[in-house]
């Protein structure tokens, strides 16, 4: 029986996240992210009117969009879709024109001090070895889940099937693969 | 050893990204401005010759294809300075990405050089050709003669090709921004024709600052007025497009209608860069008043302001800033 192509995705359980920032620190250590830059980050949204306030904490990163505007905008082919739909940047092909940065609906990219554009890779180098991305591996509250959403038996697919979820800026039309469980 | 303090950032504050995107600066503005002028020059030089049926009468106009290529080179230098990975610039020419306007632009820029060079050589008069022959090193003379012969033999196809290239370059400078819907103030296909019309107008303004044949000057003033009229209509359509495209469009329109770009856009671009020069050119034509350089200067300043303001507004406008 044929199986749909692998489609990596991540869920962020906003009811579990306490904003401890372990995911950010793990990413920095795993990927040698330069000081002052973040490939993933914590957003704390507070809404409502005092004293009736609600807070939502989200661990955010590149959304590895299915219809990635950054890949379309890239003039050299440095930004590309890799295994499992993961969007990567080939450093040796990147001219640093920043078209992909302007095209990204999530402002998830930045110029690395070495000149090329950098971003979250879903730690594909770890995933290829059967490991979880660095941020997922250290999350103490099991907020983050990573896997193949086209595999109905994966934890990610089961969470997406059983929980209510949302994505950031669906109006961008980019079909993001970072899902926030609500 | 002196202890060092390392502060680890965990809420995003990426340089050039936060608090608002500011990845592109004066280099891109200058490039878009010069690219527009060059597009306008090629369109106008071709259209003038098609309309009159003869080569340019005024001396400076015959040299304009070469001047245009010089301005384009200056724009490309600015573009190169903007690159973060400058010595990988050659990567633009190791690929052609049909979905990327920047890739189209990179290739159009390369194709415009030989076409513009042949157009320029074919337009030179005998005196200018003699001067060029005297200045050309002996080993390049045979090549020069061949290029001049091609420029003469293929004059009309070259004119047509340069008009097409000019239109392509002018459209591209706008579509470079207009095909990035993630920046809400750029989310409009109207930017392509708007930047083309502005390019024709600023190109005409630059030509009007030169000493031209009276007939050529009058034709250029008339065409410039048409280009300015087209710009005003296209700016109207830009806002109609914003008004009919939901929350994101309303946010983008709000930047210019009460938001932070209101004063600069309507005063520098619309009034000083379009309306005032249009009135001056209209008065000159109807009342037969002597030509004044004020109108072309205002048009050039307005064209620069249009690109600077639209670039800044686009970088400023992101989904995450929506209310």
List the helices and strands and how they pair.
The complex is a heterodimer of chains A (182) and B (323).
Chain A (H helix, E strand, L loop, with lengths): L7 E6 L8 H10 L9 E9 L2 E9 L8 H5 L5 E3 L5 E3 L9 H5 L6 E2 L5 E2 L5 H4 L6 H5 L5 E5 L6 H8 L2 E2 L11 E4 L1
Parallel strand pairs in A: 1-10
Antiparallel strand pairs in A: 1-8, 2-3, 4-5, 6-7, 9-10
Chain B lengths: L25 H27 L6 H24 L18 H23 L2 H10 L5 H13 L1 H24 L12 H18 L5 H30 L2 H11 L5 H26 L6 H23 L7
Structural write-up:
The complex is a heterodimer of chains A (182) and B (323). Chain A is 20% helix and 25% strand. Chain A has one domain: Alpha-Beta Plaits (2-Layer Sandwich), CATH 3.30.70.20. By secondary structure, chain A is of the alpha+beta class. In chain A, the strands form four sheets. A four-stranded mixed β-sheet of chain A has the order 8-1-10-9, covered by helices on one side. In chain A, strand 6 (110-111) and strand 7 form a beta hairpin. The model of chain A has no long low-confidence stretch (mean pLDDT 94). By secondary structure, chain B is mostly helical. Chain B is 71% helix and 0% strand. Chain B contains eleven helices and no strands. The longest helix of chain B has 30 residues, at 214-243. At the A-B interface, helix 1, strand 2, helix 2, helix 3 and strand 6 of A face helix 3 and helix 9 of B.
Concise structural overview:
The complex is a heterodimer of chains A (182) and B (323). Chain A is 20% helix and 25% strand.
Using brief descriptors, characterize the structure shown.
heterodimer, A: 182 residues, alpha+beta, Alpha-Beta Plaits, 6 helices, 20% helix, globular, B: 323 residues, mainly alpha, 11 helices
Shape summary of chain B: globular
Task: Write down the CATH class of chain B.
Answer: Mainly Alpha
Physical arrangement of strands within the biggest beta sheet of chain A: 8-1-10-9
The level 1 CATH classification of chain A is Alpha Beta
Total strands of chain B: 0
Please state the second-level CATH architecture of chain A: 2-Layer Sandwich
Strand content of chain B: under 5%
Secondary structure: number of strands of chain A:
10
Question: Could you report the average pLDDT of chain B, rounded to the nearest whole number?
Answer: 93
How many helices of chain B? The count is 11
Number of helices of chain A: 6
Reading the helices and strands of chain A in chain order gives EHEEHEEHEEHHEHEE
CATH topology of chain B: Formate dehydrogenase/DMSO reductase fold
Radius of gyration of chain A, in angstroms, nearest whole number: 16 Å
Helicity range of the residues of chain A? 10-25%
Please indicate the count of domains of chain A.
Answer: 1
* Biggest β-sheet strands, sense, barrel of chain A: 4 strands, mixed
């Amino acid at each position: 029986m044929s199986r749909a192509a692998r489609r990596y995705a991540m869920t962020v359980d906003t009811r579990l996240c306490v904003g401890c920032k372990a995911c950010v620190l793990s990413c920095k250590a795993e990927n040698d992210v330069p000081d002052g830059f973040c490939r993933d980050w914590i957003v704390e949204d507070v809404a409502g009117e005092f004293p009736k306030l609600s807070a939502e904490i989200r661990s955010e990163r590149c959304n590895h969009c299915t219809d990635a505007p950054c890949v379309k905008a890239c003039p050299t082919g440095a930004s590309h879709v890799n295994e499992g739909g993961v969007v990567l940047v080939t450093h040796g092909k990147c001219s640093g024109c920043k078209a992909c940065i302007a095209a990204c609906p999530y402002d998830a990219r930045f110029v690395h001090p070495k000149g090329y554009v950098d971003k979250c890779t879903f730690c594909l180098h770890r995933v290829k070895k059967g490991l979880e991305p660095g941020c997922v591996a250290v999350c103490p509250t099991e907020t983050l889940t990573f896997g193949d959403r086209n595999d109905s038996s994966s934890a990610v697919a089961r969470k997406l099937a059983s929980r209510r979820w949302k994505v950031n800026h669906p109006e961008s039309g980019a079909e993001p693969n970072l899902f926030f469980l609500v | 050893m002196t202890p060092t303090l390392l502060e680890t950032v965990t809420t995003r504050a990426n340089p050039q990204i936060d608090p608002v995107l500011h990845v592109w600066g004066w280099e891109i503005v200058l490039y878009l401005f010069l690219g527009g002028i060059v597009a306008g020059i090629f369109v106008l030089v071709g259209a003038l010759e098609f309309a009159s049926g003869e080569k340019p009468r005024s001396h400076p106009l015959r040299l304009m294809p070469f001047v245009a290529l010089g301005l384009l080179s200056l724009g490309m230098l600015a573009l190169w300075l903007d690159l973060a990975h400058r010595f990988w610039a050659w990567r633009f020419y190791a690929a052609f990405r049909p979905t990327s306007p920047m890739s189209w632009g990179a290739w159009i820029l390369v194709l415009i050089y030989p076409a513009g060079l042949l157009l320029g050589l074919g337009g030179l008069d005998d005196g200018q050709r003699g001067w060029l022959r005297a200045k050309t090193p002996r080993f390049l003379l045979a090549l020069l003669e061949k290029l001049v012969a091609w420029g003469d033999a293929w004059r009309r196809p070259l004119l047509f090709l340069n008009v097409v290239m000019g239109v392509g370059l002018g459209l591209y400078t706008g579509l470079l921004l207009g095909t990035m819907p993630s920046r809400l103030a750029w989310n409009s296909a109207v930017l392509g024709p708007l930047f083309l019309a502005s390019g024709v107008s600023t190109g005409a303004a630059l030509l009007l600052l030169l000493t031209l044949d009276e007939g050529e000057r009058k034709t250029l003033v008339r065409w410039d007025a048409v280009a300015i009229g087209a710009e005003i209509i296209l700016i109207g359509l830009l806002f109609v497009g914003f008004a009919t495209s939901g929350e994101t469009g309303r946010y983008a329109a709000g930047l210019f209608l009460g938001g932070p770009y209101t004063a600069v856009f309507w005063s520098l671009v619309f009034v000083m860069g379009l309306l005032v020069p249009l009135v001056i050119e209209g008065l000159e034509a109807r009342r037969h008043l002597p030509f004044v350089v004020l109108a072309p200067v205002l048009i050039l300043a307005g064209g620069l302001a249009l690109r600077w303001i639209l670039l800044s507004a686009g970088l400023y406008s992101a989904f995450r800033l929506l209310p």
